[in-house]
Amino acid sequence: MTRSNRTLNRMLLALVGVFFLGLAAVLAWPWAAESLPVLPPAPRLALDSVALWVTSGVALAIVVLALTWILSRGRGGTRTALTVGDVSVATAAVEHTVRDELADVPSVLAVAAGAHRLRGRTALEVTISTRRSADLPALLERVRSAVRALDTALGAEVPLVVRITTGWRSGLAHVQRAE
Amino acid sequence: MSIGRYERMLARRELRRSRSVAVSVALALLALGAVYVGIEGVLAAVQRPALLVAPADAPRAWSAGEPLVLGVAGGALLLGVALVIAALTPGRRARHRVQDERSVILVDDEVLAAAVSRHVSRATGVAPGQVSTALGRRAAEVTVHPTSGHPLDPVRIEELAEAYVAAIHPVPAVRTRTRVSRRGVVAT
């Protein structure tokens, strides 16, 4: 997760897409006007030195803006889960708390926690890697009680995303058969 | 009671793929094109031979509809269509949210489907490899290959799968459909 604005991303993507479509239409205009008489004939153009300078200036501006955008992506990650007064809690502490709570659940292989700043708040993300055929309702019950324990430990309800996944390690771990 | 606005936003971000990389790629292509235009401009200014088309020849090449111009137009058309599609499609990730009042709990479809298969296989006594589950956003289809000579009750399997998915409580709800294969598997 990053803090990038999803709607802005899509609007920009659509804008660049429409620009390319427009470019295609303009480039193909004289050729298309020849075979399709419906289209108005393309004007005769000449490039003088002013037009050349303007074009180069626009090209330079596009390069600078594009690079600025590309290089400013992917920020917002933090290792601080919560700050109360002078005390800050690291995401590692969150990770340890949840891992301890789930230590005796056989289907849980790994627990990882991260945090990022999003719209002025810190969102926590806890990723729980499980075996592929975990007993899901039982696991979810344990996850909910682990979250309650985390809330008690932190003394606050931080916005939290819990992801239950199968990590690369679960491919190696064999299916649990024992009841 | 359900999760708050901020949490719903978090869930939406996690359930859909970000277009961040796509935007960066699109802008990089745009910048490359701009760099090319700039290079041709500089080469013409210092009176060196052009890479592809000199700016002075560009209007004539455009009017004549030369293959190079049409090729670039075709490339721009394909790219533009791809970008507009990427901007408009939801880009869903293979995950489901599970009902919870405190936090956003997301389960990978792989985990959810495997759990349903495992439950049906345990409850019916069919080997784990004979049950498979295909999961969409709002529907799950459980396919069971019965062991030869041990007929299965489709209604009971339907109930099993439905109750199990209901206990997990995905949001939005997932309907279950079960299919008992006509062909059995020879017991090993």
Q: How many distinct beta strands of chain B?
A: 6
Number of domains of chain B: 2
Separation, N- and C-terminal Cα atoms of chain A: 37 Å
Q: Summarize model confidence as the mean pLDDT of chain B.
A: 89
Oligomer: heterodimer
Report on the biggest sheet of chain A: 4 strands, mixed
Provide the succession of SSEs of chain A: HHEEEHEEHEH
Helix and strand composition category of chain A: alpha+beta
Low-confidence stretches of chain B: none
In round numbers, the mean pLDDT of chain A is 84
Helix content of chain A: 40-55%
Strand order of the largest sheet of chain A: 1-4-5-6
Please summarize the sheet with the most strands of chain B: 3 strands, antiparallel
Say how many strands of chain A there are.
6
Radius of gyration of chain B equals 28 Å
Shape of chain B: elongated
Largest interface: A-B, 72 and 75 residues
CATH superfamily caption of the largest domain in chain A? Cation efflux protein, cytoplasmic domain
Question: What's the helix count of chain B?
Answer: 6
Instruction: Please report which band the strand proportion of chain A falls in: under 5%, 5-15%, 15-25%, 25-35%, 35-45% or over 45%.
Output: 15-25%
CATH topology of the largest domain in chain A: Alpha-Beta Plaits
Describe this structure in words.
The complex is a heterodimer of chains A (179) and B (188). Chain A has two domains: 66 residues, no CATH class; 96 residues, 2-Layer Sandwich (Alpha-Beta Plaits), CATH 3.30.70. Helices cover 49% and strands 21% of the residues of chain A. Chain A is built from five helices and six strands. A four-stranded mixed β-sheet of chain A has the order 1-4-5-6, with helices on one face. In chain A, a hairpin with a 2-residue loop joins strand 4 and strand 5. In chain A, helix 3 packs across helix 4. The two termini of chain A are 37 Å apart. Chain B is α+β, with helices and mostly antiparallel strands. Chain B has a three-stranded antiparallel β-sheet with strand order 2-1-5. A three-stranded mixed β-sheet of chain B has the order 3-4-6, with helices on one face. In chain B, helix 5 packs across helix 6. The model of chain B has no long low-confidence stretch (mean pLDDT 89). Chains A and B meet through helix 1, helix 2, strand 5, helix 4 and strand 6 of A and helix 1, helix 2, helix 3, helix 4 and strand 2 of B. Strand 6 of chain A pairs parallel with strand 2 of chain B, so a sheet runs across the interface.
